[in-house]
Amino acid sequence: MSSPSVEATTTATRHAASVADAVKVYGSGDTAVRALDGVSIGFPAGRFTAIMGPSGSGKSTLMHCAAGLDTLTSGAAFIGDTALSTLDDRRLTLLRRDRIGFVFQAFNLVPTLTVAENITLPIDLAGGTGDRQWIDALVDVVGLRDRLHHRPAELSGGQQQRVAVARAFAGQPDVVFADEPTGNLDSRSGEEVLNLLGRAVRQMDRTVVMVTHDPVAAAHADEVVFLADGRLVDRMESPTADRVLDRMKAFDSKGAPS
């Protein structure tokens, strides 16, 4: 039997990442938790997609499985046309290194390295040289030209997260997954990071998939998809913070509009 695919319903759209009939169950027997319950969704290339839902809705699980950080119980996850389930551990590690970028709530910078060294760290660890012209342009996009020789302790939280964003994009990945990237930032710094992610998508033709609980953050995306109880329950194009907040309020505990 061939792996399930989302291609039939989205023949005109190229997806940077997608899942089809995704099921993820943690535990077994009476204690089993169905974190994803048959989710099929594609994340279009060159777009900024936000994933929202109540606590326990499965949004982080969806991101982790789509990014190959966790495995599905059943169904399939793809980066482009590559089915993650067909890869052994080594090839999956190489795919994550070469085709996926990550931005997390914690900045995860190496304190002994400069900003410039932190940005190119994944490329350096892989033994590559990277596209220096791309990295140079990226430094300007994230506004760190005058901070390249500073170390993380000399930067504000917002500046550190901008370094993390630059590092995620440095290898020109197919998709960058961002998990609550503004969670540790004040509102002004968070807004700067969200604007930065938006610029990377619209000015540099990148793809971003962001998990967030914040309607203001979600409003920076091109589209918001809503999960509840492990299921995809709605999606919204051209979101605003007020519309997203209203939609979140409309979901009852079962994930259906009340």
Automatic annotation (TrEMBL):
GO cellular component labels: membrane protein complex; plasma membrane
PANTHER family: ABC TRANSPORTER RELATED, IMPORT ATP-BINDING PROTEIN
GO molecular function terms listed in the Swiss-Prot or TrEMBL record: ATP binding; ATP hydrolysis activity; transmembrane transporter activity
Matches recorded under InterPro entries: AAA+_ATPase, ABC_transporter-like_ATP-bd, ABC_transporter-like_CS, ABC_transpr_LolD-like, MacB-like_ATP-bd, P-loop_NTPase
The protein's name in its UniProt record: ABC transporter ATP-binding protein
Lineage top rank: taxon: Bacteria
Organism (species): Streptomyces sp. R21
Lineage: Bacteria, Bacillati, Actinomycetota, Actinomycetes, Kitasatosporales
CDD domains (alphabetical): ABC_MJ0796_LolCDE_FtsE
